[in-house]
Structures are given as C-alpha cells and as structure tokens.
Specification:
Chain lengths: 119, 111
C-alpha cells in the first residue's frame, strides 16, 4: 500500500516552454502533498506544500508564478514549471500524506521523481 | 532555523556493519527519520524515532538517539549489496508538517 506515482519520469523540453508534472496517490487519499527539488549530491529542498482544494504554500525563495501547483483532488497534485530555463533542470520529487493516518509522525510517501532537463 | 548534517560517503564491506551518523540543531525536533533513496528513485521511509526514545531496533536496523548531543545514528547489521543507496536523516517538529532533510550519506557496499 501507500504508493505514489509521478508522470512523466523523465522529460526534456526546450527553454521557454512549460512542463507539467503529475503526482498521484494510487491507493490512498492525500489531503497534503509536498513538492521537492533535488540537485545532484544535495538534499531535498521543499518547494511547496499542496493542500487539496486550497492554494499551495510556497517556501521562501520559490517563485509561485514560475512553479504552479494545483491540488484538485485527494489523489492528484500537479506542478507546472512555466517558461522553463536550463537552471530549472533538476530532479523533482513529490510526496503525499495519507489522510487517514493521524498523529505527529508525518510519514510521507514519496514518488519516484521526475528528471527535468531544459535545453 | 533547522539544520541537519551528515557525512557524504561511507564505504563498507559486505557482511560488516554500517553506521551512518547525523547531527541536527533544532532542540525542539520531535521526530527523527531515516530515509533510503535508491538510484533514480524516490525516498523510502526506513524507520523513525521519537525524541523521547534512546534506541529503536527493527530487524537489521538500529537507531540510536543522543538528544543531549543532538546526534542520531543508523546502524545496519550484516550490510548487503542491496543496501547500497543514499540514506537521508530528517527531522520534524510536533505540529509542523515540514520535514527537514540532511544532505544524504551515500553508502557503498563492497562485495
């Protein structure tokens, strides 16, 4: 159980175009999903917290107009990188919390990640 | 702010024990986690420990917490080649959904 999928797994796009990445919780409902960015040999950097039915909460330094997040249902959140540039090339990982699990242990189930390359 | 630090690399021989260390700065950390990331994949939660615990053991994994020194370690007994991965230490605070990750320790298991 607790499987999170991401699509696509790998994408190459031209500079100036937009790319949408999907994150789905396959066998549970997630009221909260998280989007991370991971650079080579670096830790995960939390970009934003996505709550179903409301606006995402962005971390300091993350441009909300560039990284559009939509969490339209309890099983789907999308991240759109608008007007992508080579510096946006990175590994983007989403995670989700199972809404049925309560308590302070914020166990997050991670997707396999999406490798974005902007040429 | 929160800060979680780990060494970057550890190499061990198959069958030996591996010990991955982590230090954190936030004394109000309530939960501490160890995640495993295999190449090209997302993170998998291995284990977690509450800040009021000193030790937790789960099969080959032993987590030790020294709250006074803000030091967390993960011991993997009888390390196997399948344990080769990057291991992330992470922490969160009660009431806050945000989890702060360390930089990750790459474990290389030599056959």
């Amino acid at each position: 159980g607790a499987v999170v999928s991401q699509h696509p797994s790998r994408v190459i796009c031209k500079s100036g175009t937009s790319v949408k990445i999907e994150c789905r919780s396959l066998d549970f409902q997630a009221t909260t999903m998280f989007w991370y960015r991971q650079f080579p040999k670096q830790s995960l950097m939390l970009m934003a917290t996505s709550n179903e039915g409301s606006k995402a909460t962005y971390e300091q330094g993350v441009e909300k107009d560039k990284f559009l997040i939509n969490h339209a249902s309890l099983t789907l959140s999308t991240l759109t990188v608008t007007s992508a540039h080579p510096e946006d090339s990175s590994f983007y990982i989403c995670s989700a919390r199972d809404r049925t699990r309560t308590g302070g242990v914020y166990e997050q189930y991670f997707g396999p990640g999406t490798r974005l390359t902007v040429t | 702010g929160e800060d979680v630090e780990q060494s970057l690399f550890l190499s061990v021989r198959e069958g030996d024990s591996s010990v991955i260390n982590c230090t954190y700065t936030d004394s109000s950390s309530t939960y501490l986690y160890w995640y495993k990331q295999e190449p090209g994949a997302g993170l998998q939660l291995l284990t977690y420990i509450f800040s009021n615990m000193d030790m937790k053991q789960d099969q080959r994994l032993t987590v030790l917490l020294n709250k006074k020194d803000k030091h967390l370690s993960l011991r993997i007994a009888d390390t196997q080649t399948g344990d080769s991965a990057i291991y992330f230490c992470a922490e969160s605070i009660e009431g806050d959904q945000k989890v702060t990750f360390g930089i990750g320790t790459k474990l290389q298991v030599i056959p």
